[in-house]
Amino acid sequence: MTPPPSSPPAGPVASPEPLVRFRLRITRDGQVAVGPGKIELLEAVQRTGSITAAAKSLDMSYRRAWLLLDELNACLKAPAVDSAQGGAHGGGSRLTEAGQELVRLYRHVEHTAERACAADIERLKDLLAR
């Protein structure tokens, strides 16, 4: 008789490969003007069409999301998010052209940096214990 298959371990499963993440931040006057959290929030607004839904999808309070977007908009020449007031069918939010361009450029920089540094990243990973 063969034993039953073992169940997967509880909790997060360790990846056999190290995870490499670029965390680009642009600061202005000591404040993060653009960073990974704000970009992730913009992407969530684009996906959901709502600051409330975007915040929930990121396990963030609406207030925190609103403050981050307000901070971001204040740092930009043109706002990244345009929000409509609520009403019978609710409000909604969408990325402006500036917001879409910001996300596109940010992700492009990450991707370009990762490609440009691929050999060095592999060398760094080779220094890690297995």
Report on the structure:
By secondary structure, the chain is mostly helical. The chain has a domain at 26-79 and 93-126: Arc Repressor Mutant, subunit A. Helices cover 48% and strands 12% of the residues. The chain has 5 helices and 4 strands. The protein has helices spanning 36-48, 51-57, 62-75, 97-116, 118-126; strands at residues 26-28, 31-34, 81-84, 92-95. Strand 1 and strand 2 (31-34) form a beta hairpin. Helix 1 (36-48) packs across helix 2 and helix 2 crosses helix 3.
Q: Name the CATH class of the domain at 26-79 and 93-126.
A: Mainly Alpha
For the biggest β-sheet, the strand order reads 1-2
Order of helices and strands: EEHHHEEHH
CATH level 4 superfamily of the domain at 26-79 and 93-126: Winged helix-like DNA-binding domain superfamily/Winged helix DNA-binding domain
Percent in helix: 40-55%
CATH architecture of the domain at 26-79 and 93-126: Orthogonal Bundle
Low-confidence stretches: 1-5
Topology:
Elements: E1 26-28, E2 31-34, H1 36-48, H2 51-57, H3 62-75, E3 81-84, E4 92-95, H4 97-116, H5 118-126
Antiparallel strand pairs: 1-2, 3-4
Helix pairs in contact: 1-2, 2-3
Give descriptors for this structure.
48% helix, mainly alpha, 5 helices, elongated, Arc Repressor Mutant, subunit A, disordered N terminus, 130 residues
